[in-house]
Design a protein that fits this description.
This protein has 480 residues and is of the alpha/beta class. The chain has two domains: 318 residues, Glycosidases (TIM Barrel, Alpha-Beta Barrel), CATH 3.20.20.80; 120 residues, Galactose-binding domain-like (Jelly Rolls), CATH 2.60.120.260. The protein is 23% helix and 25% strand. The chain starts with a helix and ends with a strand. Bound molecules: beta-L-fucopyranose. Beta-L-fucopyranose binds next to loops.
Length: 480
């Protein structure tokens, strides 16, 4: 009798419908290796520096004399060590802004640092900054304004040759370059070699971007191209530090054109069914302007404002690109340095102890009931492991139990984006004193989502995935 029961049980297991046991496959567009590396950087700095710093302008007309560019105590190490100590992973320098003045001694123009009094015309700020960045473990990126208000040939094919020659100089002498920033501001009035007129260009065709990008890729295959619509990363649609609360890393680039109604919302939120992985980058300045102006010394964003921006950028699955403009001496102003230090202290304080590290987790569904997709992988600190459900399960819950009641203020969630962005909506609950209470509900997760909740104690939390494009894959949960 006992033997036949056992036999029947074995037979039942063998005949029961087969569970999904294969690893999940990619769903929709996925990030490239360099885009993944870019996501992991999380916070980068922008540095705006040119003749504008000396004229108190935001957009130089292009007629500024190189003679006015003369930082008295240029100290790239102060810039880079400040950024390093406050958590930045990369730095993007305005090698040439719209005024056309070059911070390196380009052989293709006289409108550069070589005709300034700075270091007797022998200085090279692009070299000094890229060297300092690399020496301190920060990646270096290049901003080279396509719009050039100095050049007489702006608007003609000769200008494109000039622009490409400058890219060659930058990528062959100062690389590796992790990101190339193509600014969308294009055409308008300017000096243009003395013509002093308004020039309009046909933004869609004048630059012949595909040829330029291919040329740059040959020199730097892993470079990430920023422009309004990518192809590496997209503009977030505002300069206030706000990624969309719903933030898809995907858009359909062919459907985007400047001036299109609703384009900023589209850039801000992405599109669930977009055809390409082009995540949003949040560029914002620590001051009202992009360049240094003494009159803005009292208007530097406070550590608390920077922390809020962190939550609305990195905390919404984006990368923060925070601009810190050096002053006329060639230093970061003390107010900016103090704000950055305060920001870093807030980050360290708010995210000091992850009470979910190593916590035990259960889930309503585990892919194939297999160990290598179990919920415990959410708290193992390994970004390469993830909790996964069966393919046909797109709503599921996981419970994370702490050894004792812990104060909860932030919940950090990460999707395993190597296989695509999936979660469309979720909510979080907390358990204490025998009851569950709702903490928050939100839409997308993506690379990272940081949810600030009403502070309170919890013995456990529950994350309910309420809608997803496919089986959800979560790699990480942290609780602070
Ligand atoms: C804009 C420019 O016009 C600003 O001057 C600044 O460089 C900002 C980052 O991008 O399009």
């Amino acid at each position: 009798m006992r033997t036949s029961l056992l036999f029947a049980a074995v037979l039942l297991v063998a005949c029961s419908p087969k569970k999904t046991v294969q690893a999940p496959t990619a769903l929709g567009p996925v990030p490239s290796e360099s885009q993944l590396a870019w996501h992991n950087m999380e916070t980068n700095a922008f540095i705006h520096f040119t003749t504008n710093t000396f004229t108190d302008k935001e957009w130089g007309f292009g007629d500024e004399s190189p003679k006015i560019f003369n930082p008295s105590d240029f100290d790239p190490n102060q810039w880079i060590t400040t950024l390093k100590d406050t958590g930045f992973k990369g730095v993007i320098l305005t090698c040439k802004h719209h005024d056309g003045f070059c911070l390196w001694p380009s052989q293709y123009t006289e409108h550069s640092i070589k005709n300034s009094p700075f270091q007797g015309g022998k200085g090279d700020i692009v070299k000094a900054v890229s060297d300092a960045a690399r020496a301190n473990g920060l990646k270096f990126g290049v901003y080279l304004s396509p719009w050039d208000r100095n050049r007489a040939d702006y608007g003609t094919p000769e200008y494109i040759t000039y622009y490409r020659n400058q890219l060659k100089e930058l990528f062959t002498s100062y690389g590796p370059v992790f990101e190339m920033w193509f600014d969308g501001a294009n055409g308008g009035d300017g000096y243009y070699g003395g013509a002093k007129e308004k020039r309009k260009i046909d933004g869609a065709h004048f630059y012949d971007w595909p040829t330029t990008l291919n040329m740059v890729r040959e020199m730097e295959p892993d470079v990430i191209f920023f422009s309004d619509a990518g192809p590496g990363v997209r503009w977030v649609g505002n300069e206030r530090g706000l990624a969309g609360e719903t933030n898809w890393n995907t858009i359909t680039p062919d459907t985007l054109y400047a001036g299109q109604p609703g384009i900023t919302d589209l850039l801000n939120q992405g599109h669930e069914n977009g055809t390409a992985w082009i995540p949003a980058e949040v560029d914002v300045s620590i001051r009202p302007g992009w360049f240094y102006h003494a009159k803005e010394d009292s208007l530097v964003k406070s550590p608390e404002q920077l922390f809020e921006i962190y939550l609305t950028s990195v905390g919404r699955g984006s990368t923060l690109l925070l601009n810190v403009p050096p002053d006329r001496s060639g230093h970061f102003h003390e107010n900016d340095v103090a704000a950055l230090k305060g920001f870093k202290a807030l980050l360290s304080n708010e995210f000091r102890t992850n009470v979910a590290a190593g916590a035990s987790c259960t889930a309503t569904n585990v892919r194939g009931e297999l160990q290598n997709f179990q919920a415990g992988l959410l708290t193992d600190g390994n970004p390469e492991t993830y909790w996964a459900t069966d393919d046909d399960v797109t709503t599921a819950s996981t419970e994370i139990s702490f050894k004792e009641a812990k104060p909860v203020k932030y919940v950090v969630l990460q999707e395993y984006i190597k296989l695509g962005q999936r979660v469309k909506s979720f909510n979080i609950e907390a358990y204490s004193g025998g009851t569950w209470r709702p903490l928050a509900s939100a839409t997308t997760i993506g690379y990272k989502r940081i949810i600030r909740v009403n502070p309170g104690d919890a013995e456990k939390i529950r994350i309910n995935i309420t809608a997803a494009k496919g089986c959800p894959l979560l790699s990480n949960v942290e609780v602070y």
